[in-house]
Each structure stands twice: as structure tokens, then as C-alpha cells.
Amino acid sequence: MGYDNSGRAAAAKANRTRVLAAARAAFLESGWAGTTIRGVAEGAGVSQETVYKTFGNKAALLKAVHDVAMAGDDEPVSVADRPAAQRVRAATTPEEGAAAYAAMAREISERAGPLMRVMLASRGGDADLEAYAATLDEQRLVGTTIHLGHWAERGWLRTDATRARDIVWMLISPAVHEMTVARGWSGDDYEAWLAETLRATILTDS
């Protein structure tokens, strides 16, 4: 009879879930500088060694927490395969595409926004955090390239695909979303503005 390690796997997953929850709470309450692996471990009821073995360092832990916020859960399903992204791909007109993309950007920004405030407030003071921020920028560029590629194939772009990709990459920057929050915009305001801006800057009328 083979060895059944399902119990160990379940325990590891439960530990990961507790660590992610404790880390999110710590980052939001204490910021980047005030959050420690020791504090996260104590909050999760695990050893510091468990946190280090599972995530590596503090920047990797923040990335894992952010990934959960981006996706909505810790399941191994990429953002590109989530319902919001599927609705963008299923759009049949530029207007529908802009609306779906804006809705997706809003959904992600609202979930990840609080953590992005932590990162944006601490940039420039930590090499690991800077590397993590650069990784996020690159991931956003990859995702934008994929969606803009679909739009280009359908003939929806009024400018070349590379220029359009760069415009969208900038528009959906966390820093831009945070500026709308700072100005008192609602989620509806942000979504409507983004959809309108996509239609006006990169998409054809039909």
C-alpha cells in the first residue's frame, strides 16, 4: 500500500492560507517596513522557518499576497483564465471589449489596491521591493500584450499594436488607479473613465 501524504499536503495548504492572511493583515496595518517575518509567523501560528521555506523572503511574501488579491483566491488558476479575462476575450465589438477590459481592471485594482498603496508608499527604500515592483510592471505588460494582440487580430486598433499596448499599460498602472482614489472617484467613475479612454485613444468605432 502506497504512502498517503494527503494529510501533510492539506496541512501545508492550511499553513499557507494562514500565513497569507496574517501577512496581508500585517502589510495593511504596519506597512512594508513595519512587517516582519517573525510577526507574520506569530500571527499565523507557524514557525519563521515555515514562512521562509514556503515563500522565501518578505518581498516574495508580499508578491504571494498580492497574487491572491489579483486573482481573488489562492487557487492555481491564472488571471488570464479567470472569468473577467474570459469576458474580455469574448467581446464581439470594440465597445464591448473596452467595457469588459475596464471592468476587469477595476475588479483587479479594487482587490489589490490596498496592497499597492503599501508598495507605492515604500518604493525607493528597499532593493527587494524594487525588484518586486519591476516584476509587477513586467507582468502587467505581458497581460496587456496578450489582450491587445487579440484586439489587433480583430482589426479594432486605431494605432499600431505596440503603441496601443504601451498606452493601455500606462492607463491601468496601479499608480493611476490610486490617483483616482485620491481624487475621490468611485469604482464606477474609474471603470467608466477607463472604458471611455480606451475607446477614444486606441479602439476603432466598430
UniProtKB/TrEMBL annotation:
<feature type="domain" description="HTH tetR-type">
    <location>
        <begin position="13"/>
        <end position="73"/>
    </location>
</feature>
<dbReference type="InterPro" id="IPR001647">
    <property type="entry name" value="HTH_TetR"/>
</dbReference>
<protein>
    <submittedName>
        <fullName>TetR family transcriptional regulator</fullName>
    </submittedName>
</protein>
<dbReference type="InterPro" id="IPR050109">
    <property type="entry name" value="HTH-type_TetR-like_transc_reg"/>
</dbReference>
<keyword id="KW-0238">DNA-binding</keyword>
<dbReference type="InterPro" id="IPR009057">
    <property type="entry name" value="Homeodomain-like_sf"/>
</dbReference>
<dbReference type="Pfam" id="PF00440">
    <property type="entry name" value="TetR_N"/>
</dbReference>
<feature type="DNA-binding region" description="H-T-H motif">
    <location>
        <begin position="36"/>
        <end position="55"/>
    </location>
</feature>
